[in-house]
Amino acid sequence: MSIPTPPVGGQVLGLAHYASRAALEAALVRIGSTFNQSVALRAVADQGGTVERDRLVGRLTGALKVEESAAEETVAEMTALKLLTETDASLVSLTEHGREVFEEIRTAGN
Predict the structure, then answer these.
(1) Distance, CA of 99 to CA of 82 (rounded, Å)
(2) CA-CA distance, 85 to 83, in Å (whole number)?
C-alpha cells in the first residue's frame, strides 16, 4: 500500500523559494558577493561568458526590478572587483575570477 503524495501548491513552492534564497544569501556572505552580482554573473555566463553591456543592464533592471543606474552600478562594481572585464566599449566578459566566483555560487547549495 502506498501513501498518497500531497499536491504541491503555492505555499510549498513559497517555502521552498524562501529556504533556497536563505541558503543562497548565506553562501553569498561567505563568498563575499551580493545577490545582484550573482544575477549578473549568471546573466553573463548564460550568454557564453560575454554579453553586450546594455543587454546585461537590461537583464538586471528586468530581473531585479531596479533602476538603470543601480544596474550600471552593479556592473561597475563587478568590473572594479575583476569579476567582469570590458572587452570593448560595448561588451563585458567574465574574468577567470568571475568564472570561479560564479561556479562557487552555482554549486553553493549542492
Answers:
(1) 11
(2) 7
Cell of 52: 553586450
Domains of the chain: 34-107 (1.10.10.10)
DSSP calls for 56-98: HHHHHHHHHT--HHHHHHHHHHHHHTTSEEESSSSEEEE-HHH
Residue type, 48: G
Grid cell 560595448 in the structure block, residue = 90
Write out pLDDT tens, residues 62-79: 999 999 999 999 999 999
pTM comes to 0.85
